[in-house]
Amino acid sequence: MKLHMTPTSPFARKVRVQLRETGLEGDVTEVDHTAAKLSPTAPVAALNAENPLGKIPALEVRGLPALFDSRVIARYLDTRHQGARLQPPEGAERFRDDRLEALADGIVDAVVLCRYELVLRPESARWQPWLEAQLDKAKRGVAALAATPLGDEPTLGTIAAAAALGYLDFRWADHDLWRGAHPGLVGWFTRFAERASMVATKPPS
Ligand SMILES: N[C@@H](CCC(=O)N[C@@H](CS)C(=O)NCC(=O)O)C(=O)O
Fold first, then answer.
1. Any domain includes 85
2. Pairing with 80, which of 17, 67, 106, 129 sits 20 to 30 Å away (CA)?
3. In a domain, 31, yes or no
């Protein structure tokens, strides 16, 4: 399998943590698009050929078209390893975990859009109310995350939550979107971030 990624992408990090938690890491070659400076305004032809949406992560697998997005990849990989499934069994627990994953991904969607607005859009064309509205989504999302019971075990939901908080630390530390207001979440993340899978995939500073 080939994983299109960058070491700074929080969505790719979800997959990279999962690979390490499930012993599948050795089955996947990472294709790093950092050098191409992948962004919505700098598409990469080799990636577009696999994912028409031009986004990472995308996973090339034998016998299927390349898989995207991170949630689809996560569910595929969870069928490919020997150990216990990371997704809870069908029922209420699975929906709680799916919701957690969607919440975490939604927080990242909002701040990734903000980053594009700040980094890619010419300053003269910046739309401040839109930016603030996206940051508000992220803050409300983090408050909801803090109100959600989070186990210490890796599931698709807890991995997504950890990738989201790690990304807020990586790109948005100066905005203090979560640490100041949610000490309980800090405690949870501190423990989760000690996992070898998280240490190995920490974004480069
Ligand atoms: N919903 C997608 C989001 C993926 C995404 O937004 N990836 C960003 C990098 S963090 C990307 O590839 N951006 C390039 C683009 O939007 O053209 C997922 O979960 O995989």
1. no
2. 106
3. yes
Residue 56 C-alpha to ligand 1 middle, in angstroms?
Answer: 5
Domain residues for 171?
92-195
Ligand 1 proximity of 51 Cβ (cutoff 6 Å): no
Q: Do 84 and 24 form a contact (C-beta atoms < 8 A)?
A: no
CATH of the domain at 33: 3.40.30.10
Q: Report CA torsion sign: 184, 201, 81, 77.
A: positive
- 11 CB within 6 A, ligand 1: yes
Domain end residue (candidates: 20, 44, 77)? 77
Closest CA to 120 of 175, 57, 40, 54: 40
Q: Is the CB of 105 under 6 A from ligand 1?
A: yes
Give the pLDDT confidence of 141-183 residue by residue, as tens digits: 999 999 999 999 999 999 999 999 999 999 999 999 999 999 9
Q: Which of 21, 51, 77 is the last residue of a domain?
A: 77
**Over the stretch 78-122, which tens digit does the pLDDT of each residue have?**
999 999 999 999 999 999 999 999 999 999 999 999 999 999 999
